[in-house]
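Sample pair:
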Amino acid sequence: MSTTCGVLSLRASVASVLPGVWSKCRRGVATIVGCAAILVCSPTTQAEIAPSSATRSNIALYYQSDVPVDELRAFDLVVIDPGRANPPSQADAPLTTWLARLRVDTSAMTPDYIQRVVSPLWKQGYRGFLVDDGQPLGAANEDANQQLRQLIAAIKQAYPEASVILRNHLALAGAIADELDAVVVDSIYTSASAYGAARTPAGLSSKESARDSLKVLQDRHPGLQIVALDYCFQGDRACRRERAKQIEADGWTPYVTSAAIDTIGVGHIEVMPRKILMVQVLEKDESLQTSTGAFTMSMPLNYLGYDVHYADANAGLPLRVNNDRYAGIVIALQNSVTNATAWRRWVLSQIRNGTKVVFMGQFGFALDGPTARQLSLRIVPRPTVPTGAHVISQDGVIGFEVMPAPDPRAIVGIEAGPETTSLLRVGVGKHQYDVAGLTPWGGFALAPYHMHLDTADQYRWPLHPLDFYRRALALPDMPVPDVTSENGRRLMFTQVDGDGFASRGEFTGATKQYSGQILYDWVFKRYPVPMTVSVIEGETSETGVYPTLSSQLEPVARKIFSLPHVEIASHTYSHPFFWTEIDGDLGARKPVNERFRLSGNDGYPFNLPIEGYEMDVNREVDGSIDYINSHLAPAGKKVEVFLWSGDAMPSASVLRRVARAGVLNMNGGDTTITRQAPSWTKISAYGIAHGPDPGEFQIYAATMNENVYTGNWTGPFYGYKRVLETFEMTDTPIRFQALDIYYHFYSATKKAALDAVRAVFDSALKQPVVPVYTSDYIRRVLEWRRTVVARDGDAWLVRTGDHLRQLRWPGNAVPNIDAAQGLAGYMPGPGGLYIHMGARQAKFSMSAPDRNAQPYIHTASGFVRDFSRVGDSMRFDFGGYYQPFILVANARDCRVAVDGQHTSAPLKSGLRRISVSGNVAPSVNYHSVEVDCG
C-alpha cells in the first residue's frame, strides 16, 4: 500500500507545473480535475503501485505449497497459507503484497497470539493477513465476532501498515470497515469444502440472502472492497471466466478458483499462461541442448511469448500441467516411450483437464478405437502398398520451407473426426489419411510433416511453426514481452570469448603484438559502445599454459578491462571443450566408461594442456572469477558474465554453480541462418531451462561467432562478414533476435578476420540499434521468463522487472495512449507493433490505428524510466550508453525541458528529436525530460 507525502492543488497550467513542481516531486502522480492539477507525491510511481482498477485491488488466494509466483505477481494482494509456503522475496514480486492466511480458533485464543503467531509471520515477510475462523457466511456468533474484532485491532496496533482482510463476517466487516482492506465472502454462487471436495451449487435462498446482505454492506460502506470467492473445476478455464463475469456484473470483485484453492483464479484480471511444456524422450546421455524439441521447435514458441519447460516421458512426468499457468503441451517424440500405456493415460488426463496438446511427429502410443474417439479421430486401415501416395488437400500452413513427398510407409491409419479440421490429407489407394490437423484439444503434425531432415542433414520446417502453434494451441493475441528491442530499436550487444589472447598477430605491423593489444587498438578503443570481454585464466595467468608470458599478457588484460565501456567476463580456467563430459555434481570429469563421446571428440583435447591440472568445476567457475577480480579487474569493477566454452553444454548443476557465484551466464545455441541455409531451424531459442530452479537456465548467444563463419577457423578468414546476413534474416520480416557481435581474440591475428570484425561493427552501428551490455540483454531474457500478462477487463495489465520494457502486439491496433498507465509510446516494427513501457507496470487498451492525438515516444535510442503523464504532457527519466536520443510523436506544438532547462527539439517528419548526453559505462546517466504540450 502506498503512503502519500502531500497533496497540492495547482491552478496554473500544466506548462508551469512541469518545470517547477515535477522537479520537487520527481515521482509524483498528477491528475487533472476541472482546471486544477492534483499532485500526489509517493515513494513509487502510480504506474507501479496503482491497482489496475481505480477503486479496488486485485486480490488472489492460493493455499497450496507450489505457489506460482510468476503468475500471482499480477495481483496486488495475494493470500497464501503460511503452513505450506513462505512469502516470496520482494525482488521476485515487487508490486505484490503477500498476506498470510490466519486460521483462527476463536475458542482457543490466548493473549500472546500477536507475539506467538502474527509477529513471526511479519518477520518472514508477510505484510498483511486474512483473518479466517473457518465459519461459513452468517454462522458466527457475537462472542466470535468480538474475538475477531479484538484480534484485528491488535494487528493494526502492532503493524499499522498491515493489509487486513476478513472472511465471511459481514456484520463485523461493517463495524470495522475502516480497518479492513477487503472482506472475502465465500460460496455465494458455488459451495466447496476446504480442500478438494466435489462442489455443489449454493442454494437459491442462501444465495439471495447473501446478496441482500452484501448489498446492504456495500451501500453503507462503499469504500470497502467485497471479494466473492467462488469455484470451478480446476481445468475449466471457461467456467472461471464466465463465473467471474457474472460476479462482477453483480457488483463485487470476483475470484474464481478451484475447490482446493490451488488454481490461479480469475478475478477482475485473468492471468495469461506463458509457459509451454515440451515433452521428449532423450537417449541415454543425450544432451537436452541437442534434442529436437530444444534445438529446433522451441524458438517459435519463444517468439510468440512462451517460456518452454522440458520433460522426459521416460524419466517422470508432472501429474498436472494446469491450464492456469501452462498455455499447452508440445510433444516431440523422437524415440520410443518405455511405458506406452502409462504415457497414453497421462496425455489423455491432461486433455481432460483442459490443457491444449500438440503432437509433433508421433503419438507415442497405439491408437485403438476408444482412444481415437477421445482424440476426435477415426481409425482407418493403414496403407498396404508402398507407393501411390498423393496429397488430396492441404492448408496454407503446410509447405512452409519444404514439402516432403507423401510416404505410405510413414502414414498412421487415422482420419479427421467430425470436430477435427484437416490441415493435410493424403490419399493411398481407396483410403485417405489426415497427417496434420486441428482438434478441439489441440492438434497434430505427424512425421515427416512436423520437421524434415534433408540429405544434407539440414532441418527444415514443413509447416509454418508460428501459425501452426497459434492455431493448435489456441494462443490469444496478447502483448508479447520482447527481448530483442528497446523502444522499438533493435538491441545490439557484443561479446568476446578469450580464446587466442596469447596469440600474436600474423600480418605486417602486428607480428610483435598479442591479439589482446591488437583488439585494444583496432576495435575496443575505436568503437565506444558497450562491450563484454572475457579472458581464459589458463592463457593469461602464471598457473596456466604460458606462465612465462603472464607478465606481458596480464597488463594488456588490465588495460582492456579498465576501459569504461568494457564489461568483464570469465571464459573459464582451462577452457573445457566438452562440458557434456563433466559431472557437475562431482565437479570433475566423468569416468571414461560413463562419458558420452561426442562425434569428433576422439583424439581432440578435452581442455587446455595445463600441467598437473585435473578438471575441477569449482576451479573453472569460482576460481577463474576470483582470479580476474583480484588480478585483472580495476577497482569498482568485477566479473559480470560467465561465457561458456567449447560445446557450451553445461549441466544443471554447473549452471547452479555460476548462479551461486552471483554471475550471469551465456553462450550456446546455434543461430546461423544465412542465404545459403535460410531455415528458421537455424535460429535458436533465447535459452534453455535445465530444470525448475531459476539458476538452471542457460542463456544462449543471439548469434554464433566467427568460428562458424570461417569453417572452424580454416578459412576464408573474412567469413565473419556473412554474419551480416544472419543479422538481416533475424530482423526482416520478423525480428527474432537481438543483434549480437560475437567473436574471439584470435580474430585479431589475421588481417582479413580483423577487417571483418570492424566491417561488422561499422554496418551494425549504421542500423537503428540500441547498444547495451551483454549483462543487460541477459537480464532482459531472465525477466522475460517472469513477466506476467493479464487481461484487465477490456484492457491489458503487464508487470515486468527493472530491465525489460518492450512489448510487441501482433495485430493492427495501437494502444489508447490517453487512458494508458505506465506506457511511454509505440512504433510499428518487424513482426508487429512495438509498445514501450515506461515503468515496471503498464495498463492499456488497444484501439484503432491513428486514433491518438496525445504526445508519445515513437522511438528512443536509450532507456525510458519513471514515465508519467499529466494531461497532454509527459515526464520521464532518459539515458543511454551511445548517442541517446528520443523521437516524440504528436509534439508539434510542445515545449521540451531537459534537466529543468528548456531545450530545442528539432521537428522532422512530424517527430521531435530530443538528444541527451550519453555515458558509455555500466551505470546509466539519466536525465529528467519534460515534454509540455498543454
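The first helix runs from residue 14 to 24.
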